[in-house]
């Protein structure tokens, strides 16, 4: 149990376009979902935390108008990179935390989405 | 605020040698602690975790880690490294309340010599 998927796994887009990445908890309900960004050969940096039905909380330095997060249901969160530019090229990873029960205090990670902006 | 330090950016060991990767944390109480491994271009794989109880934690792939409160450390160990262990290793500190947010260390890249 506790499987998290991301779609797409890879995306290439042109500069100035918007890209949406989906994160789904497949076999559990997620109270909270997290979005991380990882530049090549660097660590994961938490971008934002989202709770179902409420606005996301962004980490300092992350542009909320640039990275739109929607957590519309207990199993789905989306990250939209608006007006993407080459510097937004990165590996985006989501994670989800169970609503209740076993391992409620642990995050389960998706496989990541590689975004390349040309 | 929570923080985590992995002092070694790169480590090279010979296959069959023992391994220890260091992790030090800062947190107001005993945090949740995790070690993840990441191969190039791949996602994270959880090696082991500590929430409470026995301070020596066994994980997958023959890894173990020991929580030392007095040293604010959670070092990862393996008695005999295999070539397939070459990867990036991340230590993470998890908050014990609120959103249970994680902060990741900068990572240690492990190279294994044949």
Structure overview:
With 118 residues, chain A is mainly beta. Helices cover 0% and strands 54% of the residues of chain A. Chain A has strands at 4-7, 10-13, 19-25, 30-38, 44-51, 57-58, 67-73, 76-81, 90-98, 107-109, 113-117. In chain A, strands 2, 4, 5, 6, 9, 10 and 11 form a seven-stranded mixed β-sheet that branches. Chain A has a four-stranded antiparallel β-sheet with strand order 1-3-8-7, with no helix packed on it. The mean pLDDT of chain A is 93. With 114 residues, chain B is mainly beta. In chain B, strands 2, 5, 6, 10, 11 and 12 form a six-stranded mixed β-sheet that branches. A four-stranded antiparallel β-sheet of chain B has the order 3-9-8-7, with no helix packed on it. Chain B has a two-stranded antiparallel sheet with strand order 1-4. Chain B contains no helices and twelve strands. In chain B, β5 and β6 (44-50) form a beta hairpin. Chain B starts with a strand and ends with a strand. At the A-B interface, β4, β5 and β9 of A face β6 and β11 of B.
Supply the helix-strand structural class of chain A. Answer: mainly beta
Spans of chain B of 5+ residues with little confidence (pLDDT < 50)?
Answer: none
Looking at the structure, what is the overall shape of chain A? Answer: globular
Spatial extent as radius of gyration of chain A: 14 Å
Helix/strand order of chain B, N-terminal first: EEEEEEEEEEEE
Average pLDDT of chain B works out at: 95
Q: What order do the helices and strands of chain A follow? A: EEEEEEEEEEE
Range of helix content of chain B: under 10%
Helix tally of chain B equals 0
Q: Name the helicity range of chain A.
A: under 10%
Mean pLDDT of chain A, to the nearest integer, reads 93
Tell me the span between the first and last alpha carbons of chain A. 37 Å
Low-confidence stretches of chain A: none
Number of strands of chain A: 11
Counting helices, strands and paired strands, the structural category of chain B is mainly beta
- Principal-axis shape of chain B equals globular
Identify the biggest protein-protein contact and residues per side: A-B, 24 and 22 residues
